[in-house]
Amino acid sequence: MNLFNLIKKDQEYWLVDQLKVSYVPNINYLIAFDKLLAEWKEEKVAYLSLLIDEENEDWILKRRFKKVSSIVEYTKTLEGPFISSGNFQVQSLSDSHMTDLTFATLYDSCRSGSANKNNMFTISQIMESLERELGVKWRDHCFIFSQNAMNYGISIPHIEQGTTDEGRMFYFGVVPEQRCKGYGTIFHAISLELLKNFGAKVYVGSTDTSNKPMRRIFEVNGCILRDIKGIYRIDIKKWNS
């Protein structure tokens, strides 16, 4: 059984996410992660980012990790139907006339000024990771919310790797000038319907504990708090120092 989801990018980074299973003892996760950590060290990858229960924080920090932030995970059964798009046009990147470069610029605008502290990647790195994580049809998962030829936000719903029906959002955001107007709640609800259309039966979303606007969006749209995890990072240079 895989206890961690692992995403690798050459010698640049490893992203490790704990896959919680209720009947698996915590010690099993620690043993499994120690093996992953030894492999990472041996391969001399630049850094490793870990998402794991905060109950293990002392254990993690003793292994020379630094804490980046804490996140909350919310979940919802996707029974629907959810809110309609109303006056907004909802179009995938593959069906639009927007170029990848323009989408990247819009993506970068949506994440600017975010309350999330875990902004480790440049927009170029993020765009490179889309195909690697979502597959060759990644543009089918990139949606743009617009009205009167103005772009208001984006969402990237998909089925989580290693599952058949767990819906996630690679990213979800509203451009800065349109925030605090209720659009985020609408776009998030539309994204839940998109996930349902992709075959998802349950949704799992996460954000920084300090991101109160996003937490309100989760709660207004019927999502329930499931977990609190810490994000930790270690660099190979620090390990070897």
Provide structural commentary.
By secondary structure, the protein is of the alpha+beta class. It folds into 2 domains: 4-71 and 229-240; 77-227, 3-Layer(aba) Sandwich (Aminopeptidase). The chain is 32% helix and 32% strand. It contains 7 helices and 10 strands. The chain has helices at residues 26-43, 57-61, 100-111, 123-134, 183-197, 212-220, 236-240; strands at residues 4-9, 13-18, 47-53, 66-77, 89-92, 143-147, 150-159, 166-174, 202-208, 224-235. Strands 1-2-3-10-4-9-8-7-6-5 form a 10-stranded mixed beta sheet, sandwiched between helices. The protein is globular, with a radius of gyration of 18 Å. The mean pLDDT is 92.
Please indicate the percent range of residues in DSSP E strands (runs of 2 or more): 25-35%
Query: Per the principal axes of the C-alpha atoms, what is the gross shape?
Result: globular
Strand order of the largest sheet: 1-2-3-10-4-9-8-7-6-5
Major sheet description: 10 strands, mixed
What is the strand tally? 10
Radius of gyration: 18 Å
The CATH architecture of the largest domain can be named as: 3-Layer(aba) Sandwich
Keywords:
241 residues; alpha+beta; Aminopeptidase; 2 domains; ten-stranded mixed sheet; Acyl_CoA_acyltransferase; N-acetyltransferase domain-containing protein
